[in-house]
C-alpha cells in the first residue's frame, strides 16, 4: 500500500460506477451528436437509443470466429485503453467517488493509454488475416502519431507551466475563476492540443483510417459480434475519456456530473462542428497538416512558457 | 486551400434548425399519376386473346383458365397470369392490349417472403390496387397494331348498278400483306368460324407472302375457300380481337386474296388427292351445294367413290342459284367445283331424286347416302294476295338460269335478310338495264339496325337506289284484278310479345301503300322434302319440321345423313362445316363396315 | 473524310464507303492491307484513337466481320474499317502494337466470339467469363435461351394455354379439324 | 414460354482446370527452406457452418430478435441495378438510418445481404462468399424480378434465375427495380419476420448445406475455393 498512499478498496466500486455512468453518457451523447449531424445533413438521423440496440444486437449474434489470441486481445486492449484512460484521470474534481485512481505523474500514463488502444488494435487486426486490416492499421497509426505530436508538445508546455504531471493538481490549479483555465493562461498550448484533439476524435476530416468507404473497413474489418460490441463500447467511452483529459487539462475540469456533461458535450462538439461539414483528408494530407500547423504551435507554446 | 475553403463549409450548419429534407412517411407515398405500377385487368373487357403474352419480351405472361370466365364467342376464357419474377414493367402488354382491359396502377410496393407468391392473375386474384384509378394507361392515340383496314378497290354504285359484274376488287397481294400484318394471331376467330378454319395461320401465310402455302391451309378446312372468300357471312370478323381497337381484320378478303393470288392452274398441283388406297365403297350425295360437295370432297380424298346427284343444270346449289353473280361470279364457282371434281367426285346434273332416281335405289346401290338438298322453297307471308307474290329464291334461280323474268318499273320486296337484299339488288340491276332507273322498295318488320342482312349489303343496296322501309309489316298485296298494284304495310310497334313469341303488333294508323308491279317475298326458305317419298318420311324421325339428326349429321336411318341448309340454316360456311362433320361420320361407318367384311 | 478516302483509294482496295453521318463512315478493307491502312491513318491522317474493336457474326455467310473504329479527335472524324474473316479459321491479326488498348478488345473477342489474335498479350486468359467451357457465347450458333434453360433452374409451376387450342378443347372438341 | 431450339445442347460438363496459382505446390523460401503450400487451404478458414440453436429462454430470444430487427446492418454489396436504389435510402431523401438500418462495408459486421437484382455466375460466387462470412443470424433479401425468376435476364447465358436455389432468401421485393420506398417496405417486413423469430435462413442454410453447395457448384464451374470459407 505504500506505493499508493491514498488507495482504498472502495475506490474500485466508485470507479466502476464512474465507468458505468460514462459509458451510458457516451452512448446517448454520441447518438445525440449523430442526430445533430444528421440534421445538418437534412436528415432525421438515428434514434437516441440506437447505440444500445446495436450493442445488444452484436452481443446477440450467434456465431463468432476467431483468428488467434491477438485477435481476441485487440478489442480488449482497445477497451482497456479507453477504460484505463478514464480510470487514471479524475472524472469529477473534488468528488471522493469519482476521483478514480489519479496519482502524481499520471499525465504520462494517460497519454500512454491514449495510444494503447490503437496499438492493441494494430496487433489484433494484424492477426485477423485480412490484408486490408494491416494497411488500415498502419495508416491509422501514422496519423495518430502525427496528431499526438502537438498534444505531447502542448502537454509538455503545460507541465512546464504548472510544474507537475499530476492531473489532479493541474485541475486544482485552474479552480476559482474561469480565467484560471489553461485556455486563458496558456492559449497556445491549448490550441496545439486542440489540433490534436480534433485529429484524434475519429471524425472527419481526420477519420480516413476508419472510413468505411476507404479500405473496408480499416482495422476492424474482421471484427464482429461481441468483439465488435467491445469495440463499440470503446467507441463511446474513449472519446469521452479523452475529452475528460482535455477538459481537465485546459478547461478547468468538472466539479459535478452536470458540469461534466455540459463540458464534455461542448468539447466534443468542437470536433463535430468541424467534422460534419468537412470532407476527409487523405492520410498524407492530414499528416502534412499536423506537421505544418500543429507542430509549430506546440513548439511555440513551449517556447512561450 | 484558402481560408474561405475552410470556413464556407460551416455555413451548412444553418440546416440544423431547418426541417429535414427527408420524406417523413415513406410508406404511404403514392406513385406518379402515370407510374407503371402493378397490373390491373378488367375482366369484363378482357377477351383472353393472349397478345400480352405474345409481346412480352421476358416470357412473363401465361394465359390460364380462370373460374368464372367461360370460353365463348370472342372470348377464349383465358386470362393473363403475370409472373413478377419476370416482369420488367415495360408496359408493352398494356400498349398492345387489344381491348384496353390491361392497365397499370400506380401501386409499386409488394414484398413477400414466398417467391411463388409473385405470380397472379390481375383482376382475378384480388389485390389492393385493383380499383386504383391512377397509373399507366395506354395513350389513346397510340396503337401498336393498325386500326383501319387496308384500302380495297370496289366499283362505285353508278358503275355497278347497270350490270352483274363483281363489285369488290379484292386485295392486291400488297394490300393483303398490309392488312394481314394487323392480325395479332390470337385465334379467337377460329372458334367462331363454323368450319373452324385456321384463320391466324393462313393470315400469317399472307403476311409472309406465301400465298400458295396459304391456299393449301385453306383447303384443309374449306374446299369452298374461293366462294367463302367472297360471300361468307364472316362471323369470324365479329369476334376479331382487332375490332376492339378499330376495324376487324378483313379475314374474308384475306382469304379471297389467297385464292385470287394463286394461279388457277396451280390449284390442281397444290391440292391433290392424297395417296390413299381405294376402299371400293361408294357414297351418294344428294345435292351439289356446299354441304354435299364438301362431304364429297372429304370422302373422295379418303378413297371412297362419291357420286353427287344434282337436280338442276349445274352444280353449286344455292351458291349458284341463290347468290347473284355480282357477289359470286360463276367462273369462280366453276373453278371451285372443278377442284373438287379433281378429287374424283362424280357430279350428275339434272338428276332429280324422286324423278330420275328414287331414294330406295340410292339406298340400295350405295353404302351411304347424304342428303344435302338445301332450302329451295320460299316461304310466304300468307297475307291477302300473297298468291300473286313472287318467291325471292325462285326469282333468283330463274335469273341465274337465264330464264326471262318480268321486270316491272316498281318492285316491292318483303324481308330484311340477305336474300331480300340479293333479290332487291338483282331486280334493281335488271330495272336499270331495262328502264335506266331503279325502283325497288324493301320493307321489313325489324328496325334497320336489327336487319338480318349484312351491314354492307344494306348499305350497298341503298347506294344502288333501293329504298328501305324498316319496321313495316305487310298487310295486303294490293291487286287490281289479276295485276299487282302495290303493297300495303302498317308500322310495326313490336315484333315479339312478352313471352318472346312471334306476334307482331302494328300501328294501324300509320299505313303506307308501296306502289309496285311486283311484290317479292324474301322472308325465309324451306326444304323441299318431297323427294324422300312417303315411306321414308314416315320412317324418319322429325324435329319441328326438320329431319332429326345427331351431332354428326346422321339421321335415324343408319345409311342416311343430312347436311347443309336443310338441317342447319342458310349459310355456306355452316354447310361446309356440316359437310366435314358428315364426312367423318360416314367415313367411320364405312370403316366399321370394311372391318366387318374382313 | 472523302479526301482521306480518295487518298487511300489509290493504294488500297477499299469497298464502297457507307456514310452514316458526315463524320462517320464505314468501309470494308482487305485483311492483308488492314495493318498498313491503320498505320497510315494513325500516323499520317491523325486518327490517333482506337474507339472500339468489335465483331459481327455473319453466320449465313460463314464469316466474322471485325470492325476497327478509329477516331481523329482534332477533326472529329470517325472511320470504321471492316475486315471479313473466315468463320472456320477465325484468326485475326493483332494490332496491340499500334494501340495497346486493342489487346483488351482482342481478349474480349477471343472469349466472346472465339476469334484468336496470335501474339496479342494475355489473349488466352479469361476476360469476363469464369470457367466457361461452352461455345463462345456471342457466336450466333450459341443458343443462349437453350443454354440458359439447360443450366439455370426456372421456377416451376408455370403453364400457359394457347387461346386457339383452349377454345377448341372447351368449345368444339369433337369437331373434325382439318384434313391432317 | 418461348420456343427453344432443342437441338442446341450445351457442352457436357468438362472440368475446368484449377488456376495455376491456386494449385498446391512446393516453394523454396529465400533461406532455402522447402515448404508445401496449398493456396486453397491457406487462404481460408475451414469450419462447416453449423446450426445455432436459439437462446435458451424464449423471452431472451424474443428480446434478442427485437434487437436484431431494430439493428439491421446491411452489407453494402451492390450486385445489380438495384444497388442504385439503395443510395436514396442512405442519403437524406429517405434516411433509412432512422429505422435502425445502416450499411456496413464488411460482411463480418453485416446481418443482411441485399441481392440487388440479377446475379451473374461470377457475382454469385462473390455473393456466396460474402454471405458465408456474415455472422449468424443473417438474412438475405432479393430485390426485383431477377432474384425471383430471372426477370429480364431469363434467357441469359450467364445469369442465374432463382436466388433461393443458392442462398436462403428471407424476403423478396417485387419490381424492376423496386423503388426505394418498396425497399423500405421490404426492410420493415423483414423486421416483422425477424421479430416473429422466423428469420432463420442461416440455420436453413446450414441444415441444407450439401444441397445448396450442389446447386452452387452446378453453375459455378471454376470452384476454386473450399466448400466453406467463413
Helices and strands, with pairings:
The complex is a heterotetramer of chains A (305), B (598), C (180) and D (230).
Chain B: H1 3-7, E1 39-41, H2 51-55, E2 61-65, E3 78-83, H3 92-96, E4 102-104, E5 111-112, E6 119-120, H4 157-160, H5 173-180, H6 188-192, H7 199-207, H8 211-221, H9 225-231, H10 251-261, H11 266-270, E7 282-286, H12 290-301, E8 305-309, H13 318-321, H14 330-341, E9 346-348, H15 359-365, E10 368-371, E11 377-378, E12 390-391, H16 392-401, E13 411-414, H17 418-435, E14 440-443, H18 455-463, E15 467-469, E16 472-480, E17 483-496, E18 502-515, E19 518-521, E20 525-526, H19 534-539, E21 542-543, E22 546-547, E23 560-562, H20 565-568, H21 572-597
Parallel strand pairs in B: 7-8, 7-10, 8-9, 10-23, 12-19, 13-14, 13-19, 14-15
Antiparallel strand pairs in B: 1-4, 2-3, 3-6, 11-20, 16-17, 17-18, 21-22
Helix pairs in contact in B: 5-7, 5-10, 7-8, 7-10, 8-10, 9-10, 12-21, 16-17
Chain C: H1 2-9, E1 18-21, E2 24-28, H2 31-43, E3 49-58, E4 63-72, E5 77-86, H3 102-112, H4 144-151, H5 163-171
Parallel strand pairs in C: 2-5
Antiparallel strand pairs in C: 1-2, 3-4, 4-5
Chain D: E1 25-28, E2 34-37, H1 39-43, H2 58-69, E3 72-75, H3 83-90, E4 101-104, E5 112-115, H4 121-133, E6 139-143, H5 144-149, E7 171-173, H6 180-195, H7 201-207, H8 209-219
Parallel strand pairs in D: 3-4, 3-5, 5-6, 6-7
Antiparallel strand pairs in D: 1-2
Helix pairs in contact in D: 2-6, 3-6
Strand elements of chain A, count? 0
Strand content of chain A: under 5%
Over the alpha carbons, how many angstroms does the gyration radius of chain A reach? 19 Å
Helix content of chain A: 55-70%
CATH architecture identity of chain D? 3-Layer(aba) Sandwich
Low-confidence stretches of chain A: none
The backbone outline of chain D, from C-alpha atoms, is globular
Biggest interface, and residues per chain?
Answer: B-D, 29 and 38 residues
CATH structural fold name of chain D: Rossmann fold
- Please report the distance between the alpha carbons of the first and last residues of chain A: 37 Å
Shape of chain A: globular
The average pLDDT value of chain D, as a whole number, equals 87
